């Protein structure tokens, strides 16, 4: 019932865990949630490492009153049994994530559940997840303590793993913020946590990018923008961010449309990173969701930034430009059934490349890719015409 399972491994998060495939009977469920167990949180035995196990919050960290509230049979029975015949697979996924975050004290289970938040792309389902006040409280408690708790459990020398755990919570929080239709300043718990991390490196190290899923790339980039929202970045931070952005852009070869949209939005605002808080959160949200109309508006501006002189002293503009063009070429060349955009939108996207052709200082490779783009666009239009004619 959970399609994406993650475990922290060094600097990246990779897939490994089994999905929840067994629904308990009501009697069995009631027996299990009435038993408060406290196993070793790092045990590798099947019993204690089972995903989304029925482990209550450890009494070392929570008061008994809160513990009883978490594992209340009535609470979970109402949540699980109400409308069971009508529930979709996605709704069961939400229930499983809530249950793991609220009722487990096992580090691996918590990371697994947090990683699954990145798999939710529906705003209604995301609202369902965050509608539970207990879930919100537990998630932000775990987020706040993720780095130090991982060091305590895995050893003080496991800094990379602790950083990866914190990065996963940052990514899940950023993803939740942009999938939900909520105001930035109304999400006070997140704002305070972001502010507290404004000097903390969240982006994925370059040697771990290849093993990281696209959802983690997108959401960590966005979390860095959130950091800039709460605290204007100094020049050295901007330089480090732009270096990382160039590395991230190398992975546009995955043909990840939403990553393309996020990178385009960030590039279009490179000149104003210190004042990024003045930008609309709505435009960032649309880019994160892959809204094609918004990308058409920002892509031309992004190309103008990359071929201009203002950002070259702190960003590898040529590399980012070529990576964006390669990705756009693959999007335009894709068959109409596989492409994330329509043929009409392909015309608009290719038209955004005009600043590249007009500039005298861009690499010849960039011009070559644009010419190839134009050829592929003509082919896409020809195929569209053939399909249209056959339909008539």
Question: Can you tell me about this structure?
Answer:
The chain has 392 residues and is mostly helical. Helix content is 62%, strand content 2%. It is built from 19 helices and 2 strands. The chain has a two-stranded antiparallel sheet with strand order 1-2.
Radius of gyration: 23 Å
Number of strands: 2
What structural category do the secondary elements indicate? mainly alpha
Tell the overall outline. Answer: globular
Percent range for helical residues? Answer: 55-70%
How would you describe the oligomerization state of the chains in this entry? single chain
Sheet-strand content, in percent, reads under 5%
Side by side, the strands of the main sheet go 1-2
Compressed to H and E, one letter per element, the order equals: EEHHHHHHHHHHHHHHHHHHH
Tags for this model:
mainly alpha; 392 residues
Task: Summarize the model shown.
With 392 residues, this protein is an all-alpha fold. The chain is built from 19 helices and 2 strands. It has a two-stranded antiparallel sheet with strand order 1-2.
What's the arrangement of secondary structure elements?
Elements: E1 6-9, E2 12-15, H1 26-33, H2 46-49, H3 64-70, H4 73-81, H5 89-103, H6 107-117, H7 123-130, H8 133-154, H9 159-179, H10 188-196, H11 214-230, H12 235-249, H13 257-268, H14 281-289, H15 292-307, H16 317-333, H17 343-351, H18 354-358, H19 364-391
Antiparallel strand pairs: 1-2
Helix pairs in contact: 1-4, 5-6, 5-7, 6-9, 8-9, 9-11, 11-13, 13-14, 13-15, 13-16, 15-16, 15-17, 16-19, 17-19
């Amino acid at each position: 019932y959970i399609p994406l399972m993650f475990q922290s491994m060094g600097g990246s998060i990779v897939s490994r865990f089994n999905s929840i495939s067994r629904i308990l009977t009501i009697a069995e469920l009631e027996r299990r949630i009435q038993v408060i167990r406290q196993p070793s949180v790092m045990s590798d035995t099947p019993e204690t490492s089972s995903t989304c196990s029925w482990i209550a919050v450890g009494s070392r960290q929570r008061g008994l009153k809160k513990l009883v509230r978490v594992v209340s049979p009535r609470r979970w029975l109402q949540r699980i049994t109400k409308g069971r015949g009508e529930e979709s697979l996605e709704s069961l996924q939400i229930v499983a994530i809530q249950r793991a975050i609220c009722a487990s004290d096992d580090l691996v289970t918590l990371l697994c559940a947090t990683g699954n938040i990145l798999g939710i792309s529906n705003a209604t389902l995301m609202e369902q997840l965050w509608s539970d006040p207990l879930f919100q409280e537990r998630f932000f408690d775990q987020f706040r303590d993720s780095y130090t708790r991982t060091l305590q459990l895995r050893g003080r020398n496991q800094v990379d793993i602790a950083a990866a755990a914190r990065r996963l919570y940052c990514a899940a929080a950023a993803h939740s913020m942009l999938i939900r239709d909520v105001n930035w300043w109304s999400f006070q718990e997140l704002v305070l946590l972001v502010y507290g991390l404004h000097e903390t490196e969240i982006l994925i190290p370059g040697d771990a990018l290849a093993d990281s899923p696209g959802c983690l790339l997108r959401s960590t980039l966005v979390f860095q923008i959130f950091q800039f929202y709460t605290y204007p970045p100094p020049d050295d931070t901007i330089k480090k961010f732009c270096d990382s952005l160039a590395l991230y852009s190398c992975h546009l070869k995955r043909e990840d449309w939403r990553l393309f949209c996020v990178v385009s939005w960030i590039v279009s605002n490179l000149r104003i990173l210190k004042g990024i808080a003045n930008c609309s959160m709505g435009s960032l949200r649309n880019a994160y969701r892959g809204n094609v109309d918004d990308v058409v508006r920002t892509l031309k501006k992004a190309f103008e930034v990359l071929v201009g002189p203002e950002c070259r002293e702190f960003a590898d503009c040529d590399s980012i430009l070529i990576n964006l063009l390669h990705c756009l070429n693959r999007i335009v060349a894709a068959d109409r059934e596989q492409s994330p955009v329509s043929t009409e939108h392909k015309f608009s996207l290719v038209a955004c490349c005009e600043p590249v052709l007009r500039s005298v200082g861009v690499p010849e490779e960039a011009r070559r890719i644009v010419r190839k783009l134009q050829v592929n666009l003509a082919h896409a239009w020809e195929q569209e015409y053939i399909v249209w004619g056959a339909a008539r």
